[in-house]
């Protein structure tokens, strides 16, 4: 197991290095000049050149990448062109919203998906299975931003039970938690529908294996065989989907963050792109890629814990 973990850690480090080079190169190749954008179309060429020199944009690309990578390794992601504040601090402020939101949505999706996925698998081909699969198909088809606006209309406008948007900060934990409930539900339900269908398919395939029939022959009920034996062996594809969903929930919640006016990481990237604040885009995207790679590493460890054969 130790050798397996070391190999995965080396792969993680190499992936981060390659990802940093790709992120820096792609962002630098985006058309437009940050200095010209900041000064406006009427700026004089010498003024633009002076600002480019101040921002370090006139240096060769490899030198700028090496300088940026050195800062990243020391925890310094640079300074925002627009706000003149450290990028790391901006990302830390925003991730305090995006990370709890993603975790809440993922836990809610699991709490919904596991029971209904197991219910549908245990009743394959029956009315309950058909009803659950129809509901999950509707959940996948509905756009989450439309569902988010529906939640606002019902629970914030009409019933006045939850806030319609905004985030008060974690200095008021109760209010902060209430502000994330509706966004988390809007993000969780489509993901729960996907996860339930994956779990159902994996369980149905597992329930047809010989060891399940042997367990039934030894006296276990269908529910006991499903929960004790089939569920664990069906978790590998489910873990894959969970890893992908967490990455999406962390990085892809920009529409929901805009609907609920949440100061999250996705919204920060959107604002930085519109303002040509490339150093913020590079830092935020690198953090998201690092989160995805870390989640993939944890999923691989989960594979090895579930199925010892995968350790070799």
From TrEMBL:
<feature type="transmembrane region" description="Helical">
    <location>
        <begin position="134"/>
        <end position="157"/>
    </location>
</feature>
<feature type="transmembrane region" description="Helical">
    <location>
        <begin position="234"/>
        <end position="260"/>
    </location>
</feature>
<protein>
    <submittedName>
        <fullName>ABC transporter permease</fullName>
    </submittedName>
</protein>
<dbReference type="InterPro" id="IPR035906">
    <property type="entry name" value="MetI-like_sf"/>
</dbReference>
<keyword id="KW-0812">Transmembrane</keyword>
<feature type="transmembrane region" description="Helical">
    <location>
        <begin position="99"/>
        <end position="122"/>
    </location>
</feature>
<feature type="domain" description="ABC transmembrane type-1">
    <location>
        <begin position="95"/>
        <end position="299"/>
    </location>
</feature>
<dbReference type="InterPro" id="IPR045621">
    <property type="entry name" value="BPD_transp_1_N"/>
</dbReference>
<comment type="similarity">
    <text>Belongs to the binding-protein-dependent transport system permease family.</text>
</comment>
<feature type="transmembrane region" description="Helical">
    <location>
        <begin position="177"/>
        <end position="199"/>
    </location>
</feature>
<dbReference type="Pfam" id="PF19300">
    <property type="entry name" value="BPD_transp_1_N"/>
</dbReference>
<keyword id="KW-0813">Transport</keyword>
<dbReference type="InterPro" id="IPR000515">
    <property type="entry name" value="MetI-like"/>
</dbReference>
<dbReference type="Pfam" id="PF00528">
    <property type="entry name" value="BPD_transp_1"/>
</dbReference>
<keyword id="KW-1003">Cell membrane</keyword>
<keyword id="KW-0472">Membrane</keyword>
<feature type="transmembrane region" description="Helical">
    <location>
        <begin position="280"/>
        <end position="306"/>
    </location>
</feature>
<keyword id="KW-1133">Transmembrane helix</keyword>
């Amino acid at each position: 197991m130790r050798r397996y973990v070391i190999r995965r850690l080396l792969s993680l480090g190499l992936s981060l290095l390659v990802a940093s080079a790709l992120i820096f190169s792609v962002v630098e190749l985006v058309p437009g000049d940050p200095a010209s954008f900041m000064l406006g179309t009427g700026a004089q060429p010498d003024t633009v050149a002076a600002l480019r020199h101040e921002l370090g944009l006139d240096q060769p690309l490899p030198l700028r990448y090496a300088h940026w990578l050195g800062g990243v390794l020391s925890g310094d992601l640079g300074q925002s062109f627009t706000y003149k504040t450290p990028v790391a601090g901006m990302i830390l402020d925003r991730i305090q919203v995006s990370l709890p939101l993603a975790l809440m949505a993922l836990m809610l999706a699991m709490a919904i998906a596991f029971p209904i996925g197991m219910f549908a698998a245990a009743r394959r081909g029956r009315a309950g299975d058909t009803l659950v699969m129809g509901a999950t198909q509707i959940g996948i088809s509905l756009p989450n931003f439309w569902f988010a606006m529906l939640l606002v209309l019902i629970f914030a406008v009409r019933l006045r039970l939850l806030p319609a948007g905004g985030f008060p900060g974690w200095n008021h934990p109760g209010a902060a938690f209430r502000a994330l409930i509706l966004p988390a539900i809007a993000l969780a339900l489509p993901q729960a529908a996907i996860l339930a269908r994956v779990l159902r398919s994996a369980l149905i395939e597992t329930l047809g294996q010989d060891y399940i029939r042997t367990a039934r022959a030894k006296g276990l009920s269908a529910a006991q065989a499903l929960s004790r034996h089939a569920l664990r062996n069906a978790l590998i594809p489910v873990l894959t989907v969970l890893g992908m969903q967490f990455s999406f929930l962390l990085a892809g919640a920009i529409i929901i963050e805009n609907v609920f006016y949440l100061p999250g990481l996705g919204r920060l990237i959107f604002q930085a792109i519109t303002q040509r604040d490339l150093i913020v885009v590079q830092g935020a995207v690198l953090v998201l890629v690092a989160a995805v790679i870390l989640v993939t590493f944890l999923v691989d460890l989960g594979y090895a814990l579930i199925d010892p054969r995968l350790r070799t």
